[in-house]
Amino acid sequence: MNYAKTTVFLFSLVLALGLLFPWAKTIIIIGLCYGLSSLGVALPARSGQVSFGHAMFSCVAAYSVAFIAKAFPATDALVLVIAGTLLSTAFASLIGLFIVRYRGIFYGMLNLAVSMVIVALLGKLYSLTGGTDGIRVDRPAIFGVMTERGDFESILLLFTLLVAVVAGWFYQRFIKSASGEALLGLKSNETRLEYLGLSAHRVLWVGYVISGLFVSLAGAIFALAQGLVTPDIGSWTRSGELVFITVLGGVSHSLGPFVGAAIFEIVKLTAAAYMAGVWQLLLGVTLLIVIVVAPNGIMGAFEKRNKNKEA
Amino acid sequence: MNLDTLILGVADGISYAGLLFLVSLGLTLIFGVLGVLNIAHGSLYAFGGYAASSITSFAIQHGTESTPLLFLSLILAALIVGVLVGLILEMGLLRYFHKKDPVIKLLITFAAFLIFEDIQKLIWGTSPYSAGEIVTRLGTVEIFDVVYTVYQIIVIPSIALIAYFSLNYFLKRTSLGRQTVAITHNSEVASALGVNVNKIGTIVFIIGAIFGALGGALAVPVSSLSPGIGAETIVVSFTVVATAGLGQITGTLITALLIGLARSIAVYVAPEFEVAIPYIIMLAVLLVRPNGLFTVAQSRRI
C-alpha cells in the first residue's frame, strides 16, 4: 500500500463527496474531527497508555473558541481555531505534568476523572457557561470573508482536510523521530529506556502535549462546524468513542484513526436510522471482535498482510 | 451554615458513604485478586438498582405488608444480579483474557460496559426508576432535633459495616479467604502450592459483583435511577479506590466516608462544586501520595 497515493486519493474522495452532497459537509467535518482527536489518543496509545478522558481537550478548546467569539464577535475563524487550540494545549501540558506519573489503568482513569471534573463544572457554573445547554457560536468570518453557511462549510471542510493531512504527516514524522521511538520503547521496557538516559516522564509528557494539541485542534474546529458548544463534547462517552476509533483503526500509521473514524461515522449513521436503541451494544461487540481478531486494528492488519506479500 | 444543616449534611454523607463503600469494595476486591479494573462494575450497580426496583414494586403490587420481606427483596435482587452478571462477565469473557495486558483487560470490560448500557435500556427503558416504599415504612428517627429516615442513617451504614467485617472475616479466618490473599501476594506461587486460581478468581469476582449490585439495590429506595448512572458510579467508585490505594479494604472504608461526607456537606456549602468534590479530593491526594492514602510500599494488595 502506498500511503502517499492513498492519502491523496482519500483527500480527493472526501472533498468531492462534500462538494457533491452539501448536506454531508458537516458530517464529514465532524468525522474528520473524530479522526483528528483519535490521532491524538493514538499517540500515547503507542506507549501502551490508553486515555478514557481525552475528549476533555476538545471540550476546553471548544469552550475557549466560544468564549473568545462571544467577547470579540469580529474575530476571524482562523484566529479562533488557533487561539482555542493554543489555550487548550497549554491546559493539556499542565494536566500532562500530573498524568505522566501514572501508567496503565491509572493513566486511563485519571484522564477520565479530570474530564469528569471539567464536564461537571461546565454543566454547573450556569452563569458562566450556560450549563448543559451550552453556548452558541455565531458563524464568524473565515479568512477575512463573511460568507453564507454553505460556503463557510465548504471552506471549513477544505481547511479541516488540510489540517488532517498536516497532522497525519506530522504524526508520521514524529513516530519516526527519537521521541516517537522512545514512546514505543516505553511500552516494551520503561527501565531500559531510563538506562539509555531518557526520562520516561519527559518522553510521555511530550507525547501527551502533542496528543492534546491534536484533540484540541479537533475541538476548536468542531465548535465552528456545529455552531454550539456543550459539556457533552468532553463527556466520557465521547472519550470512549475516541478509544474505540483508535483501537479499531490502529496506531501504527496516521491513516488508522481516520479510517477508524470513517467506519465509525458510517456505522453510527446507519445505526441511528435502523437500530438507534442498540448503538452502544454494537460498539461494544465490535470492540470485542477487534481486540480478538485484529488487536493492532485495521492498519495493523493491513501492514501484516503487506509484509506477508513481500516475504 | 447552622448546626441543623451540618447534622443533615453529616447524615446524608454517612448514608451516601455506605453506598459508595459497597460499590468501591467490590471494585477494589476484584482488582486486588484478578488485576482487572472492572469498568462494567458501574453496570452491576445499575442492574442491581433496577432489578431491586422491579422486584420490590412487584412485591408491593401483590400486597406485601411485611417490611422485612421488602428489605429481603432488595438483597435478593442484588444476589441474583451479582451472581448472574458476575458469572457472565467472568466465565464468559474475562476468563479468556487472563494473561493479557491490564490495559487490554480494561478495554474488554469497557466493551462489556457499553453492551450492558444498552441491555439495561432495552430491559428497563429510559424513564427514571425508584422504590421509596421501604423508606417510608421504616419511618424516621430524630437526631438532635433533625428528623432523618431510619433507612438512610441506620440500615445502609449497618449493611456497609456488615459487608466490611464479613469480608475481613472471610479473608483472614477462612481457608478460601486465605488462599485468596495468597493469590494477591503471588498468583504463580499460590498456584504451584495447589491453590485453584481460576476457581477462586471466579468466586471473588462474584463476591465483588454482588457488592456492586448491592450498592445499587440499596440506593434505589433513596435515589432515582436513570441511564448514565453506571458511568457515574464507576468513575466515583474508582475515585474512592484510587484515593485509598488499589486493593486497600480498610482504606476504602475510610476514604468512602471522607468523600461521602465532603460531598454531602458541599451540597449545602458550595452546590456548584458538589459533583467535582470527589475528583478534587483524589487529585489532591494523588499529588502528595501518588499511590493513594493507604498504600504501604508494594506489600500485599488486599
N→C terminal distance of chain B: 39 Å
- CATH fold-type name of chain B: ABC transporter involved in vitamin B12 uptake, BtuC
What separation lies between the terminal Cα atoms of chain A?
A: 15 Å
The total count of helices of chain B amounts to 12
Q: Please describe the biggest sheet of chain A, giving its number of strands, its sense, and whether it closes into a barrel.
A: 2 strands, antiparallel
What form of chain B results from the Cα inertia axes?
globular
Main beta sheet of chain B: 2 strands, antiparallel
Strand content of chain A: under 5%
Shape by Cα distribution of chain A? globular
| Beta-strand proportion of chain B | under 5%
Mean pLDDT of chain A: 89
Kindly report the spatial arrangement of strands forming the biggest sheet of chain B.
Answer: 1-2
Describe the protein:
Chain A is mostly helical and 311 residues long. Chain A has one domain (3-235). Chain A has 14 helices and 2 strands. Chain A has a two-stranded antiparallel sheet with strand order 1-2. In chain A, helix 2 packs across helix 11 (236-249) and helix 7 packs antiparallel against helix 10. The longest helix of chain A has 28 residues, at 149-176. The relative contact order of chain A is 0.18. The mean pLDDT of chain A is 89. With 302 residues, chain B is mostly helical. In chain B, a hairpin with a 2-residue loop joins strand 1 and strand 2 (146-149). Chain B has a single domain (3-288), classed as Orthogonal Bundle (ABC transporter involved in vitamin B12 uptake, BtuC), CATH 1.10.3470. The longest helix of chain B is centred in the N-terminal third of the chain and has 32 residues, at 3-34. In chain B, helix 1 runs parallel beside helix 6 (150-173) and helix 1 crosses helix 10 (229-244). In chain B, strands 1-2 form a two-stranded antiparallel ribbon. Chain B has helices at residues 3-34, 41-61, 67-92, 102-124, 133-138, 150-173, 175-185, 187-192, 197-219, 229-244, 249-269, 277-288, and strands at residues 140-143, 146-149. In chain B, 50% of the residues are buried. Chains A and B meet through helix 5, helix 11 and helix 13 of A and helix 4, helix 10 and helix 12 of B.
